Records
---
Amino acid sequence: FELAEQIPLPREAVALRAEEKPEQCTISVAPGKLAEVKKAVLEDFVIDEHAVDLILSTLVYACKNILLIGKPGTGKTSIARFIAEKLGFEPVIVTANAHWSRLDVIGGPMFTSRGGVTWRPGILVEALTRHVRAKKEGRSGAWLIIDEINRADVDKAFGEFFTVFSGPEPREWVIPRRLFDEWESYAGSED
């Protein structure tokens, strides 16, 4: 990450650095693994073979996000979870809703059961933390899978997310200082 004013990321997310990113974005997959994953997907799900090829090549070689579109109950989330697990990633699955805001996606201040206020990480920060932890443990990482993303108010829920992650490469990501100031202002708050 390139951080505004070189502010360190809190908690375990500090481990992600642009210099750790290879020049060409690819996920390390053993020879034959993609063919094995493709075969398993085709055995377990009713899905077009070319769609599986597109999904796998986009995820593994282009390192791009995938948006699966289809009728409810057709297995989109199950396929996403299955592929993540087969490639050695921890699936972090959340379901969006119309009430989502920046607090749900990025994080923010929340009241505690004892009447205090603490900073609670949102799903994105949680997924990043789990990814870094998995990498440190020698696993592939974690993938965030958002089910029913169409239910969320995109501007309200993802506006700040799009600002932070406006570029495709981690070295282009800039986390605003105000987000760290907010996070740090709650450090040590009661839970």
---
Amino acid sequence: GSKQSNNTKEKKMKKLFLAALIAIGSFAGYSQTKIAHVDVQKVIDTLPSYKNARKELQSMMAEAEKDLAELEAAYEKVAREYEEAMTGNASQITLERIRKRAQTAEKRLVDAQEMWQRDMRIVNDRLNAPILERVQKAIDNVADRMKLSYVLDVNATHYAKGDDITNAVITEAITLDKEAIAKEKSSQQGN
């Protein structure tokens, strides 16, 4: 019986030894994990295409505000006419005509607000999608070069200590951005 218990003890020791090797191996693998952080918003803010997109959106917003102000002024004018007609001795037919004009002006204002909101959202998405793709590609390129396992956005992290790759990503993103802008210009000249 003693040979069998020695054999069992030996098997247990081998299992423990194997478990220890696996644990050490996985710890060694874990210690190879490289984590860095990046300030994505700072990267985006430095890109020429983002600055151009903001200008385009601000211009569009100014146009929308002007258009909506004109429609609102037209609506308010008709609404005042209706109030004056109500307090005066206007006929029922005149009141009805002014009321319909006020409703039409209000509908044009509401429709224009909805149209501008929709158009601004569409333009915003169209302008920002390629920018975000370039920033992601820049992060991927830098992470690959630096052999990083994880890159965290510093704005979504409570504590960031370690490699800050923001400047490297900015450099990469600006390069990708300039290439994209040049490609876009050459394709526009080809049309």
